What we know:
The chain is of the alpha/beta class.
Amino acid sequence: GGDKGALVVLAPPLKPKGAFRVLERFRFAGLDYEEQADKLLRLLTRYNVTNIAIDGSGIGDAVWKLVVAKFATAKKIIYSVESKVLLVHKAKNVIRAGRLEFDASMSEIIEAFVSIHAELTNRQRSVTFVADRAGGNGHADLAWAIMNALSFEGLDGAVTGQGNVVENF
């Protein structure tokens, strides 16, 4: 109900503290897990992919199982309060430093990021980050896909590899 799914191709920085560039983005509304995995795997022929991360909840678990069979190091991300907080803080750091670049026509990326907000957990003990499932940006799927990609860079900005990163959320 509202999760539309998204995939981004992100070029990592060529040097420490360099810019990430969003090369392509895709929306997966209405696609089943086989179609999503196929679209992601086809990108392996177009890019020098070094990292893949997939949201492992829901349909993403099936996508990950198909992808990891062909790209053994694909990372499955299971969201928790702690992991979401770390993803958001890393993204804020990269964005504030002017290190996230994308074409101006990709305005839905901005919409996805601004739809994410802090909220107390059900037990009111921790702060987590959520996005409304209404509107055209789904559940901020593009923003979470970008944050998954950013997670491959260390908190200190150390470069973890060359090539392009494909992320699926």
